[in-house]
């Protein structure tokens, strides 16, 4: 569990710099330069992510069960994961209505992903992993929306074609991941 927690502290800690120390971040970028900062940030983030994967795998090998998820939790989680894929794609397709409404669909996708997995899983490792991401995404979304309002940032919609593109990309990606990718990457078949 220590490796999982260390990975979460490193990964989410780095991703929280903009939430809690945006001025310090700007100073470091000016001092180091944008590319060295991004390189250091990416390297440390990758290290944190690998620790999360390793630590979660170790924790899953001897799980401490905290609760038994309701039978409907898996079904609701599957529906929420479809929404997660739509939000995730919307973060990268400019001019779609989800981005216009939410501003930061990646953070809403992270919240939805974490909540869905808490509905379907009940071990201590699940609570630590998904609960940490859920709390982080809630905080980052609130700060990011406030930052956008103060700066007058908006995300205009560019037409229905962008919304259709989100669906055309997200739906097959969700189907592939739900039936093949999750088992291949995570070792769990959600629809088994």
Question: Describe it for me?
Answer:
- With 192 residues, the chain is mostly helical.
- Helices cover 80% and strands 0% of the residues.
- The protein has nine helices and no strands.
- It has helices spanning 2-14, 17-20, 22-32, 34-61, 71-90, 97-102, 105-120, 124-151, 160-186.
- α1 (2-14) packs antiparallel against α4 (34-61).
- It is globular.
- It starts with a helix and ends in a 6-residue tail after the last helix.
- The mean pLDDT is 94.
Query: How many DSSP E strands?
Result: 0
Query: Strand pairing plus helix content: what structural class?
Result: mainly alpha
Using the alpha-carbon principal axes, give the shape.
globular
Largest sheet features: none
Radius of gyration: 18 Å
Please tally the helical runs, counting DSSP H or I stretches of 4 or more residues. Answer: 9
Mean model confidence by pLDDT: 94
Instruction: Extract low-pLDDT stretches.
Output: none
Between the first and last Cα atoms, what is the distance in angstroms? Answer: 27 Å
Q: Which band does the percent of strand residues land in?
A: under 5%
SSE order, as H and E? HHHHHHHHH
Helix content percent band: over 70%
Tell me briefly what this model is.
This protein has 192 residues and is mainly alpha-helical. 80% of the residues lie in helices and 0% in strands.
């Amino acid at each position: 569990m220590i490796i999982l927690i260390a990975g979460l502290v490193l990964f989410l800690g780095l991703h929280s710099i903009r939430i809690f120390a945006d001025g310090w971040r700007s100073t470091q970028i000016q001092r180091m330069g944008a590319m060295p900062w991004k390189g250091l940030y990416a390297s440390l983030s990758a290290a944190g992510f690998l620790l999360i994967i390793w630590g979660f795998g170790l924790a899953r090998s001897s799980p401490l069960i905290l609760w038994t998820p309701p039978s409907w939790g898996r079904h609701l989680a599957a529906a929420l994961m479809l929404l997660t894929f739509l939000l995730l794609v919307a973060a990268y397709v400019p001019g779609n209505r989800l981005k216009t409404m939410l501003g930061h669909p990646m953070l809403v996708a992270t919240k939805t992903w974490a909540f869905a997995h808490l509905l379907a899983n009940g071990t201590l490792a699940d609570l630590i992993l998904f609960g940490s991401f859920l709390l982080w995404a809630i905080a980052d979304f609130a700060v990011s929306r406030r930052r956008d309002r103060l700066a007058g940032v908006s995300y205009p919609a560019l037409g229905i074609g962008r919304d259709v593109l989100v669906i055309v990309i997200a739906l097959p990606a969700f189907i592939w991941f739900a039936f093949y990718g999750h088992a291949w990457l995570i070792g769990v078949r959600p629809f088994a």
